[in-house]
Design goal:
Elements: E1 4-10, H1 32-44, E2 52-56, H2 59-75, E3 83-86, H3 104-107, H4 114-119, H5 135-158, E4 171-176, H6 178-192, E5 209-216, H7 219-222, H8 227-230, H9 264-269, H10 274-277, E6 310-319
Parallel strand pairs: 1-4, 2-3, 2-4
Antiparallel strand pairs: 1-5, 5-6
Helix pairs in contact: 1-2, 5-6
Length: about 350
Amino acid sequence: MAPVIVTMVRHGESKDNLSNFWAGHRDAPLSNHGNTQALRLGQAFADVPITAIYASDLNRANTTARRVWEVNKERNGGIEVPFTTSPLLREQFFGEAEGAPWDAGRYSSAHMPWEDHRAFQLSLALKIAPHAESLNDVARRADLVLRNFVVPHVLATANVPPDAKHPEQHHIMLFAHGIWLSEMMFSLKRAGDPQVRYVKSGGYQNTAWTRIELELDDPSAYHALGSEEKGANGSEPPADGEYPAPPAPSEATQPSRSNTTLTAEEADSIGMSPDIHALLPTLPSVPERNPTLPPAWPHANDLSHPTPKLRHRVVTFAQADHLNGLKRTGRGVGSAAHDEKQRGLKEFFSGGGTSPKKAQ
């Protein structure tokens, strides 16, 4: 069995990153500087074998992922890596605080007990910002990413006999956002120990990436399972792509919403302002599966069935060598929103300073 390589990437600099306000689901484009960061990242991963890419549907993360996808395709004879877009990888939703000035004194939950901090929502009850997600809500979305997108790759590599001389190795990339990436790391830890306590995994600068090796904790037990348990027959998500949220993490002390996605009708029923409607996901949580990907894990939606116990190892954290020597273009150009219509071949070789380092 070969461990699955999981590379988790934060998006390039967005226009909202240059402002001091809450911007969880706001769909700001990359800045020109952020686009150059993404191009540097693409060059660093141009020759790295990639099995699949999973990306947030928000512009800043999806565009960053596309830059890697485009260059990897170009360097590999036009072979396209399967690319899946899902709102499950979105940043934490700050409800009606979205777009409001950041004010730690008003919105911070750091002063609360640890368990309350995890369950804290900018809620109507607190008269601060209704309809926001707590960290536990974001953790549930990370759990769904693990169950629907990551576990199938782990099971696919576990299907290789232990004595195989050249076991197939999968490398998947997750493109998302700072808070979400920390929750995804927590999800991986809980898959090994459901009682583990949350510890923030540290910050990511724009386009920094972390590499993790992931495998079944007990590979021998896998080979005794039937094909249905392994997912050999495949399993498609419901037609609407919506799943109820998995059980709360072990530290959760309060109930939460059953699903992180609200319809416009549901939003209206609880008095959500019209401006918030535009920030809610419109794509299915789990889109139709690319036929070249490993079959879905049949128990992804069976929340009474625990996630396979996994073992993970962090190989490198928040790596950003590809940005060495990169400087922001002056006169406000670097901070301006990137215009896709002005893209050219020259961009693939831009960035200033020294050549970006290659990912290994």
